TrEMBL record:
Its main location: nucleus. Its EC number is 3.6.4.13. It catalyses: ATP + H2O = ADP + phosphate + H(+). It is found in: Nucleus. This is RNA helicase. Residues 33-44 have a biased composition (Basic and acidic residues). It comes from Chloropicon roscoffensis. One of its GO terms (molecular function) is ATP binding. The lineage of its organism: Eukaryota, Viridiplantae, Chlorophyta, Chloropicophyceae, Chloropicales. It comes from the Eukaryota.
Length: 751
């Protein structure tokens, strides 16, 4: 390994300076080559897909044959010119004008912070530049994104620019979906995926360079990666790390990595006029709709970008816009396009497509269009001023997505989106006073506001013993750390001294939240991994039920047929089994109002989990129809979410006393069967606190698996027994602590 690293280092030193001189030429060559490859790509779509060993001539021949077959010559020609423009577009991006300087700085410095306005080409171009400069010879060029959608959409775009099929030279990886192959040189991925890769390969040897994109977002995984990658850079002199950020924070990043250079991509933006609301806005959805309509009906051409907080609001906003336009006589056409992470990929891609002539586009998006995705042609931004963020909710005792006012940095980013193609306008649905006095300067980084369970498991298994010692840019509040450690401790993942237990070590291997990982391992203990695998997979995908507005009753009836009365988890299991019995058929799903795509996704997740189980030498076991054990496994990992019956459909959380309700869509609802004790997957707050995905459990199981919290009411005899048990446990704990203290003292002495 050392040998390989050294030769890579030499590569930089020796050939680095030579390459700087030929960059001008390479760009042209690359252009031609990419055009040729693009043609080959056209052919590949036809189906036979083999690469071309004979060189470009053959590409053209095959492409011509393809065009004969599929298209008229003129269409093929326009295809070709489209390819040219995609390359021309590349040359028009701001980052292109500083390409050589940028590559020089990267060559001379192991770590560089790159700052540039959104849309300057950081995400799509830098990976390609590195590749074109030859970095790909020594390993992959990775680029991390805090959001799945961004990773997928950018990889797609870059594969088109390079002229290859997505998943070959250019690919992406997100949790449960790996679209890369042996040829992959440019890999986009979520920061979570790279973080998990450091578990398997602590020096990331497969990569020669990593771009940590959107670092200003300060996502939890990015923050942890900062510390890990900083170490890797110090161990591997051949490794390059590039951190990109929107204008803010760059100094902070540079300082963290030891005063590394900051490279600025000169922006080319137009002025944006911002208009605040004069009075506080009561209903921002309504306000946004009105504003967008006013723009559409009375302002000159230019597309509109609306910022909303989440899917429901976005759908509501799109619906209202359409409805009101329909009511107007001869209103000009408006192409209304929603954009959120759960939207199917083909619909997401529509926001980048050009609308028909004289049709205005109106994109209604979550925060994802703030910096992750850039759409050209926006001249108007309408900003509701709020954002959905994951925060730890002490009342629920878990993370929840909640709506908060944006930060000033956030709303300024948003307004900037109006000035990419010409002078624009941003309409803010909040007052200037609110902007100045109610908004924070920047968002609180995720690491300081969410549950750290996953991160703690991961760092512990990377042998970071004392988390307070880890090199965090902004350390999490100690209280957060302790709370999250407590949760891991009650699950049995950490021992009394805060070290990983055997169970904890196994849990880390699964890319799942700790309780789900534990559920799988309990499934192993109880001999029902096959069933638990299905339950876990179904919980890892969006809801499978399809409920079209015009056929609600029919679809509800179809759903009810699958109900297993004591459990929503088992209902999911039942659905999956039925689907499998029906040969995983799509028409069967359609008949039963189930989303086939989502079920397929669950099947994929399941098979990936099976791979991990096999690697861990955990056999696949099944209880057949003995589903009580399945409920026990669920109980053993979710006993912290236990509730006790209080009234009809009404429960209270056993530990916190918070009221929580059965959701009307639950299998347990309205069947005349309400068990005394249930556990739930999560609590969601809409009009009330609803438990989502509920399973009835035996109180004895709670006492067995959750003995940290629960005991069965005691008679004198059992009381004696319990006291004895507690005394033994306390002694064991003391002994454990003793050993730990002694080890620590010895270690200190050695130092
Ligand atoms: O990362 P940064 O914000 O600096 O820019 P980028 O994402 O690399 O975008 C550069 C250009 O690529 C923009 O003009 C986008 O419109 C275009 N792009 C696209 O057309 N389709 C995508 N899926 C992503 C980017
Ligand atoms: Mg970007």
């Amino acid at each position: 390994k050392r040998e390989a690293n050294r030769s890579r280092e030499r590569f930089w030193e020796v050939s680095g300076s030579k390459m700087a001189k030929i960059t001008g030429v390479t760009t042209q060559e690359i252009k031609e080559e990419a055009d040729a490859r693009e043609l080959a790509g056209v052919k590949e779509d036809e189906g036979d897909g083999d690469s071309d060993p004979e060189g470009n001539g053959a590409h053209y021949k095959k492409a011509a044959k393809f065009s004969d077959h599929m298209k008229t010559t003129s269409q093929a020609a326009s295809e070709f010119s489209k390819n040219n423009t995609i390359q021309q577009q590349r040359c028009l991006l701001p980052v292109f004008s500083v390409r050589e300087e940028l590559m020089d700085v990267i060559r001379e410095n192991q770590i560089v912070v790159v700052v540039g306005e959104t849309g300057s080409g950081k995400t799509t171009q830098m990976t390609q530049y590195l590749y074109e400069e030859g970095y790909g010879k020594w390993g992959m060029i990775g680029c991390t994104q805090p959001r799945r959608v961004a990773a997928m959409s950018v990889a797609k775009r870059v594969s088109e620019e390079v002229g290859v099929k997505l998943g070959e030279e250019v690919g992406y990886a997100i949790r449960f979906e790996d679209c890369t192959g042996p040829k992959t040189k440019i890999k986009y991925m979520t920061d979570g995926v790279l973080l998990r890769e450091t578990l398997k390969e602590d020096d990331l040897d497969r990569y020669c360079a990593v771009i940590m994109d959107e670092a200003h977002e300060r996502s939890l995984n990015t923050d942890v990666l900062f510390g890990i990658l900083k170490k890797i850079v110090s161990r591997r002199r051949d490794f390059r790390l590039i951190v990109t950020s929107a204008t803010l924070n760059s100094k902070k990043f540079s300082d963290f990595f030891g005063q590394v250079p900051i490279f600025n991509i000169p922006g080319r933006t137009f002025p944006v006029q911002t208009i605040f609301s004069k009075t506080p806005v009561e209903d921002y959805v309504e306000a946004v709709v009105k504003q967008a309509l006013a723009i559409h009906l009375s302002h000159p051409q230019g597309d509109i970008l609306i910022f909303m907080t989440g899917q429901e609001e976005i759908e509501c906003c799109c619906f209202a816009l359409k409805e009101r336009l329909d009511q107007l006589e001869d209103a000009p056409e408006l192409s209304i396009l929603p954009m959120y992470s759960q939207l199917p990929a083909d619909l997401q891609a529509q926001i980048f497509e050009k609308a028909a002539d004289n049709v205005r586009k109106c994109i209604v998006s979550t925060n994802i269009a703030e910096t992750s995705l850039t759409v050209d042609g926006i001249l108007y931004v309408v900003d509701c001023g709020y954002v959905k963020m994951k925060v730890y909710n002490p009342k629920m005792g878990m993370d929840a997505l909640q709506v908060f006012p944006c930060s000033r940095a956030g709303v300024n980013q948003r307004s900037g989106r109006a000035g990419r193609t010409g002078p624009g306008t941003c309409y803010r649905m909040f007052t200037e006073v609110a902007y100045k006095s109610e908004m924070l300067e920047v968002n609180v980084p995720e690491i300081q506001r969410t549950n750290l369970g996953n991160v703690i498991l991961l760092l512990k298994s990377l042998n970071v013993e004392d988390l307070l010692d880890f090199d965090f840019m902004d350390p999490p509040p100690q209280d957060n750390l302790l709370k999250s450690m407590f949760q891991l401790w009650i699950l049995g993942a950490l021992d009394n001294t805060g070290n990983l237990t055997k169970l904890g070590r196994k849990m880390v291997q699964f890319p799942l939240d700790p309780p789900l990982a534990k559920m799988l391992l309990m499934g192993h203990q109880l001999g029902c991994t096959s069933e638990i695998l299905t339950v876990v997979s179904m919980l890892s995908v969006p809801p499978v039920f399809f409920r079209p507005t015009d056929r609600q009753e029919e679809s509800d009836a179809a759903r009810e047929k699958f109900f297993v009365p004591e459990s929503d988890h088992l209902t999911l299991l039942h659905i999956y089994n039925q689907w499998s019995n029906n040969k995983y058929r799509g028409d069967w799903c359609a008949r039963h109002f189930l989303h086939v795509k989502i079920l397929r996704k669950a099947r994929e997740v399941r098979s990936q989990m099976i791979d991990i189980m096999e690697q861990q030498r955990l056999p696949i076991t099944s209880t057949q129809l003995e589903w009580d054990t399945v409920r026990q496994a669920i109980c053993s990992s979710y006993f912290h979410h236990a509730s006790k019956l209080k009234g009809i459909g009404e429960y209270v959380n056993c530990r916190t006393g918070i009221p929580c309700h059965l959701h009307p869509t639950s299998a347990l609802y309205g069947l005349g069967y309400t068990p005394d004790y249930v556990v739930y997957h999560e609590l969601v707050m809409t009009s009330k606190e609803y438990m989502q995905c509920v399973t009835a459990v035996d109180p004895e199981w709670l006492a067995d698996y959750g003995s940290i919290f629960f005991t069965i009411k005691e008679t004198d005899e059992t009381k004696l027994r319990t006291e004895k048990k507690e005394a033994i446990e306390a002694a064991a704990m003391e002994a454990e602590m003793d050993v730990f203290r002694r080890q620590k003292a010895e270690a200190a002495k050695r130092e």
